[in-house]
Amino acid sequence: MRIVILPSADDVAEYGAAVFIRQLTNKPQSVLGLATGSTPLALYQLLVSACRRQHVSFARARTFNLDEYLGLAGDHPRSYRYFMQQHLFNAIDILPQNTAVPDGTANDPVTACLQYEQQIADAGGIDLQLLGLGRNGHIGFNEPASSLGSRTRIKALTQATITDNARFFQAGEYQPHLALTMGIGTILDAHKVLLLATGTHKARAAKAMIEGPLSAACPASALQLHPQTTVVLDEAAATELTDVEFYRHIERENQALVKRLSSQ
Ligand code: F6R
After folding, report:
1. How many CB atoms lie within 10 A of CB 74?
2. Is 143 part of the annotated catalytic residue set?
3. What is the distance between the alpha carbons of residues 43 and 24, in angstroms, rounded to a whole number?
4. Per-residue pLDDT band at 262 (split at 50, 70, 90)
5. What would the mean pLDDT of 103-121 be, rounded to a whole number?
6. Which of 12, 34, 36 best tests ligand 1's pocket when mutated (most atoms within 8 Å of CB)?
7. How far apart are alpha carbons 200 and 183 in whole angstroms?
């Protein structure tokens, strides 16, 4: 795991946007794995403005979202499809048919999950997967005790996640307790993973993910097995890390190496 600790949440978003822009510059037909929630919002805004300024194009890219609420149609304002349309897809040059979000209203959601896996495989696999981090260590909707080898499937959400996400729903509004989510095995198959976490409320999960044992109790700890994961934290999310000075040292060494190589 590469651990990058930056001063603020804005810096985290800028770092993430630069990773996406580099990915699309090097491979315009990239297959991108995307996330919803609060964390990627600033990153998506930066990508929208880079696309408007023609610094990046999604015209040849394909995207697969991590998850969707079971029972919510794509035009439901709380659905993740709707979120993606509002915050990214409607404002960039991606072809609508190249964006995939699990279908929350599929007649047969079990088969829909299998088909989602097949679509990802048919696209050649995910080049770059963006992740947020749940306060309980979830990635996608893979809650604690999820199989570390799981594939796209239906998952019941924990009360902690339901409570955390209640902020997106109005009082009295129906909030699904089930979701379709890529599995941890699906996520681990991505070529590169970029996880962003900001704020003190993520500090405990960040510590468990980076320094804790590999355990289904913290699904994000499965990323310890992934050969190309970059975790980008703001100072607040890094407050519980024990080896923070070591991560900063490694990052300085990385930067120096990149500088040396690029000046040769
Ligand atoms: C969203 C997702 C979730 C979120 C996580 C953090 O598609 O898969 O795992 O990334 O719950 O959410 P925020 O960013 O709202 O704190």
Report:
1. 15
2. yes
3. 15
4. confident
5. 98
6. 36
7. 26
The owner of tokens 């697969």 is: 64
Is 87 annotated as catalytic? no
Compute, in angstroms, the gap from residue 119 CA to the centroid of ligand 1: 23
Q: Which residue has the tokens 């000075």?
A: 245
Evaluate whether 184 touches 222 at the Cβ level (below 8 Å): yes
For residue 7, with 0-12 CB atoms within 10 Å meaning exposed, 13-18 middle and 19 or more buried, which class applies?
exposed
258 CB burial (10 A radius; 0-12, 13-18, 19+): exposed
What CATH code is assigned to 2-262? Answer: 3.40.50.1360
pTM of the model: 0.97
The three-class DSSP label of residue 43 is helix
Please tell me the distance between residue 263's alpha carbon and the centre of ligand 1 in angstroms: 39
Question: In the structure encoding, which two tokens stand for residue 60, read together?
Answer: 């040849």
Q: For the chain, give every domain's residue range.
A: 2-262
Q: Which of 126, 141, 182, 186 to mutate to test the pocket of ligand 1 (most atoms within 8 A of CB)?
A: 141
Look-up of token digits 């822009």:
21
